[in-house]
Amino acid sequence: MRLHELPVLAHMTYDENDPYAVRVAFTDGEYVYAEWRLDRGMLREGMRREVGEGDVRIWPGVHIELCGEADFTVGEESLARFLERTYEVVPEGEERVDVDGLVTRLLTAG
């Protein structure tokens, strides 16, 4: 099996209306290799110890493995700063989800 390393950018966004998730697009600036919604708390915990199972695993250094196939390494300091800002917007324990709005969006999608 031959492993390939390819430098990509991890473009992360946070929306307070989806407070538990961080959206991340792995891209080279032109092509998006993967786009995922990752658990915000899992990202933070993954900076300290290995977490996750199934499709997403995260461990220190910050490695993010998707579907057991792709292993992305994210800059630890950049991720820590990003997560700190998300917790300034929506502090841990103050996450709220508009369930009625979510159900409406799901029923009208597609």
TrEMBL record:
The alphabetized UniProt keywords are: Cell cycle, Cell division, Septation, Sporulation
Q: Which family does it belong to?
A: Belongs to the SsgA family.
InterPro entries the record matches: SsgB, SsgB_sf
Mind naming one GO cellular-component term on file for this protein?
Answer: cell septum
Output this protein's name. Answer: Sporulation protein SsgA
Pfam families membership = SsgA
Where does this one sit in the cell? Answer: Cell septum
Q: Name one GO biological process term.
A: sporulation resulting in formation of a cellular spore
Give the source lineage, highest ranks first: Bacteria, Bacillati, Actinomycetota, Actinomycetes, Kitasatosporales
Q: Give the chief site where it resides.
A: other
